[in-house]
Each structure stands twice: as structure tokens, then as C-alpha cells.
């Protein structure tokens, strides 16, 4: 062992309306309208709207993968590529 901890990509816990709009193929204003109507749960933090990842997965049916939401560490890539013989 080299003593270096294995770095795994972290799954984000919340996304901005613009990011959610891109994920689902909507306009940002459409996502904001869903928030305003209460259809899509979001929280406002320091003047910015954030949509929890769990809401995106449950309400919008978008499967969020940790490797696509952050830069994957080079050490983590071989784990995903291993397949049983």
C-alpha cells in the first residue's frame, strides 16, 4: 500500500435551477416556475435557489451519478472499469 487514501468522487447534494434545466431539457425559467408553484421543492440559501439531488432523482426521474457530477479522481476510475471474469 502506498499510504495514499483512495479518492472517490463526491455526489453533490444540491443543484442550481440552470443545472437542473440542462439535465431535463427545460428552460431555466421553466424550472423556476416549478419551484414557484411548489411542484419542485427547493431551498433558498443566501439568495440562491438550490434543488436537492434527492428531489431531482425522485421528482424528475434523473439518475445522478457521482462520476458525472464531479471530476473523477484518477484513482477511482479503475474501480468502475473492473468486471468479473
Q: Would you write up a description of this structure?
A:
With 85 residues, this protein is α+β, with helices and mostly antiparallel strands. The protein has a domain at 14-64: Arc Repressor Mutant, subunit A (Orthogonal Bundle). The protein has 5 helices and 3 strands, in the order βααββααα. The protein has a 3-stranded antiparallel beta sheet with strand order 1-3-2. Helix 1 (17-24) packs across helix 2 (28-37). The radius of gyration is 16 Å and the shape is elongated. The two termini are 24 Å apart. Residues 68-85 have low confidence and may be disordered.
Give me some keywords for this one.
elongated, three-stranded antiparallel sheet, Arc Repressor Mutant, subunit A, 85 residues, 3 strands
Number of DSSP strands?
A: 3
Q: Helical element count?
A: 5
Largest sheet: 3 strands, antiparallel
Order of helices and strands: EHHEEHHH
- Cα Rg: 16 Å
CATH topology of the domain at 14-64: Arc Repressor Mutant, subunit A
Share of helical residues: 40-55%
Work out the strand percent: 5-15%
Q: Any idea what the shape is?
A: elongated
Mean pLDDT metric: 78
What would a concise description of this structure say?
This protein is an alpha+beta fold. It has helices at 17-24, 28-37, 53-60, 66-69, 77-81, and strands spanning 14-15, 43-45, 48-52.
What does the secondary structure layout of this molecule look like, with pairings?
Blueprint: E1 14-15, H1 17-24, H2 28-37, E2 43-45, E3 48-52, H3 53-60, H4 66-69, H5 77-81
Antiparallel strand pairs: 1-3, 2-3
Amino acid at each position: 500500500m502506498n499510504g495514499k487514501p483512495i479518492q472517490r468522487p463526491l455526489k453533490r447534494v444540491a443543484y442550481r435551477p440552470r443545472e437542473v434545466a440542462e439535465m431535463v431539457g427545460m428552460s431555466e425559467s421553466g424550472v423556476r416556475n416549478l419551484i414557484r408553484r411548489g411542484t419542485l421543492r427547493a431551498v433558498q440559501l443566501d439568495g440562491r435557489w438550490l434543488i436537492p439531488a434527492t428531489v431531482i432523482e425522485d421528482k424528475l426521474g434523473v439518475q445522478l451519478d457521482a462520476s458525472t457530477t464531479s471530476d473523477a479522481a484518477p484513482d477511482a476510475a479503475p474501480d468502475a472499469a473492473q468486471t468479473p471474469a
